Amino acid sequence: MEIEQKSIEFIPLDQRHGSVKSLMTIWFGSNMVILAISTGAIAPSLGLNLAWCLMAILVGNLLGGLFMAFHSAQGPHLGIPQMIQSRAQFGVIGAILPLLLVIVMYLGYFASNEYLAGQTLGFLHIPLTPAIILAGIVTLLVCIYGYDVIHFVEKWASILCGIVFAIVSYFALQQPLPADSLNLGPVNMGSFLLAVSIYATWQISYAPYVADYSRYLPEDTSISSTFWYTYGGSVLSSSWLHILGAFLFIVIPNFAANTPADIAGLWKLPINTIVYLAMIVGIVCSNSLNLYGAFMSTITTLEPFTKIRGTRKTRVTIVTITAIIGMAIAIWGSGDFLTIYSNFLLLLLYFMIPWTSINLIDYYFIKRGRYSIADIFDPSGIYGRFNWRSLGTYFATVIIEIPFMNTTWYQGSLSVAMGGADIAWIVGGLFAAIVYYLVSINSQNIIMETKSGV
């Protein structure tokens, strides 16, 4: 396979290829990672029993998956990456704000995966820091080749990891549960809603780059098929491994201390090396998406000022620099992984939900998929440099969310009044959607944009 030639530019119709069914395997495979299992362990760490963990995991994934799948459906129609399409809402320069946030997101997820990869390679008696670097280099190679190679490796990773984690799940279910683990009795609603927020974030954090992996599909690919293959693959796999993580946290003492070793230890055979290898494959394949997304977002951020293009040299340079930064973060943050990671997820959600609401309302209800691709790449075009309606809605939403937040470093007054519940993402999502719709529906720009078309 050759290195991908395109980056953020429009994919011509004669270069479209692939089957919509590939979205099922890429999003199923992307969740077949131990990071998903570690995320599942967050719910019981908040004091929920297994029954309430199951509820939080399912509700969070089912709701959050709606956002990411609707973003995925934009890819075949527009033929451009997800974040560059944000220029149509925020302006060509204004879109840099959400772009910088998602670059931070990619680095956070990349570093989290790298830390777990380093732990996993411990079975070869490789020290943590060299193991993190080794895993990062392999991930870097996959990412450099780009779209088709990522789809290819995720297809096979979804099969391999699916089989291995099915066997792991079988052995896990043999472990005895504490009494009342499946009792849906009284619950701390604050902890439950906080857990729902975390699992919704897992899905919503895919939104900024989910369309990157559907943009090569034929233009006539239906919204419904793109939506359901994406939604099914992502929600099924993430819910499965989140539940597995919650279960293992409850039945294995100090599970979060060395997650890979505890998972492999469930396989009571000398060949538990297969589990380690599957976990490494899953991490490398999944983390290539984070590097790829960071590359695309960085190009989109720099392009209005430098006219930089996604050449092979540029791709290798940006991806390498990002990987080095991510590996450094993984090495630095290895002391208290679960706490750092859960706070990262919540912080991410507060800033991502306004963006996703604005983008979806704009695409499905304001412009209804009618965009001028040429103007998305032109700072002097109809989308302008800044769209203050969108930016104003975005900042107002973040402010509105503050009283509802609950993290280890800050808890809003309304969250305190609700017993620790964190519903900032629900309030923010609804507020951004309603306000953006009202301030945009009758604007003159909509008439101009509708005339331009795609």
Q: If you average the pLDDT, what whole number results?
A: 89
**What is the string of helix and strand elements?**
HHHHHHHHHHHHHHHHHHHHH
In total, the number of strands is 0
| Span of the ends, CA to CA | 31 Å
Whole-number tally of structural domains: 1
Structural class: mainly alpha
CATH homologous superfamily identity: Hydantoin permease
Main beta-sheet annotation: none
Query: What is the annotated CATH architecture?
Result: Orthogonal Bundle
The whole-angstrom Rg is: 21 Å
Uncertain runs: 447-453
Helix run count: 21
The first-level CATH class is given as Mainly Alpha
Content of β-strand: under 5%
Helix content: 55-70%
Query: What fold name goes in the CATH topology slot?
Result: Hydantoin permease
The shape is: globular
Strand-helix topology:
Elements: H1 22-30, H2 34-40, H3 42-45, H4 50-72, H5 74-78, H6 82-85, H7 87-90, H8 96-120, H9 128-145, H10 147-172, H11 189-204, H12 223-251, H13 259-265, H14 273-306, H15 312-332, H16 337-366, H17 373-376, H18 388-401, H19 413-417, H20 424-440, H21 444-452
Helix pairs in contact: 1-10, 1-12, 2-12, 4-11, 4-12, 8-9, 8-14, 8-15, 8-16, 9-14, 9-15, 10-14, 11-16, 13-14, 14-15, 16-18, 16-20, 18-20
